[in-house]
What we know:
The termini are far apart. The protein has one domain (10-144). The chain has 5 helices and 6 strands; from the N terminus they run βααββββααβα. The strands form 3 sheets. It has a two-stranded antiparallel sheet. Strands 2-3 form a two-stranded antiparallel sheet. It is globular, with a radius of gyration of 16 Å. The chain is of the alpha+beta class.
Amino acid sequence: MTTIDYKEGIRFECQGSGNCCVSRDSYGFVYLSPDDLKRFADDFNISIDKFKEKYCQITDGFVHLIEKNNLNGKCIFLKQNKCSVYKSRPSQCRTWPFWNENMNSKVWNEDISINCPGIGKGSKIKSDTIKKFLKEDFKNERLILKNRIIHQK
Length: 153
């Protein structure tokens, strides 16, 4: 497995396609950490429980934004290909496309760069910035795993 070399930076500029905001079953769920839930609840001025009740569901013990059949996999907060909750968007969205799992050259070349029209566009994202995104992604993933809801009988 070859890792993407980002020492010289990577050209990326969001093109507003909304492709990253459309799930492909559980692959595309927007999983939420406790930090994400708090940020949303604060921004919406409601309790975390109320936010979860209204906007989330749980799959395999993991909290994620609700999937609605009438949206064909589009995020519930995607309006005219723009994020309507940009200020409070989850860490998973803040770090896209610089996720640790995406930094594999096969994944990057056969999935990310094909589905994300922003790859290769705009100015280069510096390696230090990419490292920060990867670190945030790693921390967020650990928080999500740590806070998995285990159903007890």
